[in-house]
Amino acid sequence: MITITTHSEDETFEVGRRLGRYLRRGDLVALTGELGSGKTILARGIAVGLDAQGYIASPTFTLIREYRGPTPVYHVDLYRLERAEVADLGLEELLDRGVTVIEWAEKAADLLRPPLLRIEFAPVSGLEDRIILLSAEGPGPHAAVRALAAAWTPA
Fold first, then answer.
1. Topology classification of domain 2-151
2. Is 54 within 8 Å of 127 (Cβ atoms)?
3. pTM for this structure?
4. How many CB atoms neighbour CB 34 within 10 A?
5. Would you give the distance in Å from CA 113 to the centre of its chain?
6. ∠ CA 131-20-37 to the nearest 5 degrees?
7. Across all residues in the chain, what is the average pLDDT?
8. How far, in Å, CA of 88 to CA of 90, rounded?
9. Model confidence over 102-141: pLDDT tens digits?
10. Which of 26, 69, 105, 110 is 20 to 30 A removed from 126 (C-alpha atoms)?
11. Minimal CA–CA distance to 76: which of 89, 87, 85?
12. DSSP secondary structure string for all residues of 46-81
């Protein structure tokens, strides 16, 4: 597990972008943290790091957004759902098609399996500061975390 502190939305985005460069088809990214903690910003960075096409928007009202690119990115937001409703989404079908990034992943605990990158946003007192805890299971997520840990210096 590694811990990174970012001091702006741009830094949080950059963490995601760097991680995205190392993720592979079939990798699952589970994002947890309070509302407004930076999950969507980091997800945007991951999509950009994977060369996803188009504007990366929050899927809060659509639940799942697909972004095309060399590796498709499925951005899922479970904020508005109860745990029981998650089973009806058919998320299992997405998991091998590309990289799947799930916000509010604690609501999909039964689906979380390797290769898995768990990213938790811990609360901090500063308005822009974010503490990001990363742990990995599987080759793609391990490579992403190792590369980030070796090279991370905030802008």
1. Rossmann fold (3.40.50)
2. no
3. 0.91
4. 10
5. 14
6. 30
7. 89
8. 6
9. 999 999 988 889 999 999 998 777 677 899 999 999 988 9
10. 105
11. 89
12. HHHHTT--S-----TTTSEEEE-SSS-EEEEE-TTS
**132 Cβ partners below 8 Å, 6+ apart?**
3, 4, 5, 6, 12, 15, 38, 42, 119, 120, 121, 122
Parallel/antiparallel/unpaired status of strands 2-6 and 130-137: antiparallel
Distance CA 95, CA 110 (A): 13
Whether the predicted pLDDT of 30 surpasses 80 = yes
- Residue the block writes with tokens 């990366």: 56
Q: Residue 55's pLDDT is what? A: 72
Residue found by looking up tokens 């079908």 in the block: 93
Identify residue 132 by its one-letter amino acid code: I
Q: What is the secondary structure of 1-17 as a DSSP string?
A: -EEEEESSHHHHHHHHH
126 neighbors 7 (Cβ within 8 angstroms): yes
pLDDT in tens, 65-91: 889 999 999 999 999 888 878 888 888
Q: Which stretch of DSSP H or E encloses residue 136?
A: strand 130-137
**Apex CA 143: angle with CA 137 and CA 145, to 5°?**
75
Domain boundaries, the chain: 2-151
Q: d(Cα 134, Cα 150) in Å, to the nearest integer?
A: 14
